[in-house]
Design a protein that fits this description.
The chain has about 500 residues and is an alpha/beta fold. The protein has three domains: about 130 residues, no CATH class; about 120 residues, Rossmann fold; about 180 residues, no CATH class. Helices cover about 50% and strands about 10% of the residues. The protein contains 18 helices and ten strands. A six-stranded mixed β-sheet has the order 3-4-2-1-5-6, sandwiched between helices. A two-stranded antiparallel sheet has the order 7-8. The protein is flat and about 75 Å long.
Amino acid sequence: MDSSGSVLPAPAKSIWQQRVDAAQLGRDALPRVRLTVSERRVLLAVVDLVLLNLGLLAILVARGGFPFSWLTVQKNPHYLLLLSALWLLWTLFFDCYDLPRTATAGYSAWSAGSAAVFTTVSYLLIPYITPDLLESRLSALLFVVTVTGSIGLWRVAYATVLSQPSFQQRILIVGAGESGRELAQALADTPQHGNPYAGSGYRLVGFVDDDPNKLEAVIEGVPVLGNRHQLLPLVKAYGIDLIVIAITYSPEIHPELFQFLLDCREQGLSLESMTSLYERLTGRVSVQHAGRNLGVVVPQVDSPTRHLSLAAKRLFDLVVGLFGLIVLALVSPCIALANAFFSPGPLFYKQERVGKGGCTFWVFKFRSMVPTAERESGAVWAAENDNRITPVGRILRKTRLDELPQFWNVLKGEMSLIGPRPERPEFVISLMRLVPFYQARHAVRPGITGWAQVCFPYGSSVEDALAKLQYDLYYIKRQSIYLELSILAKTVRVVLGLKGR
């Protein structure tokens, strides 16, 4: 009201304030159900196992002779434990817990349904320690159909309901630079029905950045909502669950921003670095945004069971290495005859490679190229449809049989079954200059197969080497029995799918 008594119009709200008001209204209508990536995987696994075991118990009760009670279950725990173990193995093979893909109802139902069929059929074929459901073909068929149908329907329900925005954690990224942009791309990696974040379990709301030139800008389809001074109001207005700090170097964090972040943490909000979330979303380590932070690329604390795990891994390598040499002895005569007919020359060839600690060793393989492949060109990456590859060599590469002689390297301790692929010294020297943290991959024994091999196609450039390094460092940081089994399962899929090159 002015001096004359008339009412003054309310000052026009800024675009930023209008956004905050609209977000507040929209947020109040949404249920507060937010599931993290880990919680989603646990939910999927728990419900899968419950449906699987309930399906078995239902068939046993319906068939008769198995009264449903906790005491009866306690007397036969191996029935359920074996079924659960088989399920976990087959889900690794069919990649049933890849969250971006589980957001697609068709893929999720197909992968989980396939795992259910193979789990139940393999369970039926195991004698003595399983109930003899094969005595009645109807019981056996009902077991397979009941389990497969119930899990398939559950997966469709999960993809339909839990991938909706109201069930996703709402994210605000602090920093709209290259690292923030890369994280936004990773979050929206699998667009689903108009919701680009359906598969990630997160929903990117916007960016906060102090650069005035970026205010109101749109990055990867997401707006820059404000600067550091507007952080707390934005968090409250948009119902933010997680703040991701996408600033590569900590000295770049303004003291005021640091205090605002502490205030958000005091309010119970979760804070996470861009590199940490990027790892969980992609299975890669973002080395180009790690700066000089070694903690991003190497484990910061050794596990108390690390030495025991390494001993078990070495024992496994020895057992598999011996088995691999037996297979090598069986197939070598056939490959020798085929090579003699189509491409006369040596059966094996050896190359110098860089292994653990940067030490070099000779790796052995079946020859898949013409004997004069590098006489003029020197060391070069193999290209797609490389005319140096022989007809027999093409088959060997597709089936990965050319790698069999490397089991000798495994027995000698120069390699492991699983680990980063060893590179040639000529490539390593150049890549160490071009790719940050490249030599960190030499912290472990190289492998015949690895996380990069099953997640990324054959590399033939510096850019490909960077991408594969990201996968290799993820494996080195997160070595576990589950990850090793997952790599083995994916390797079997690659071999059976003839995806070698």
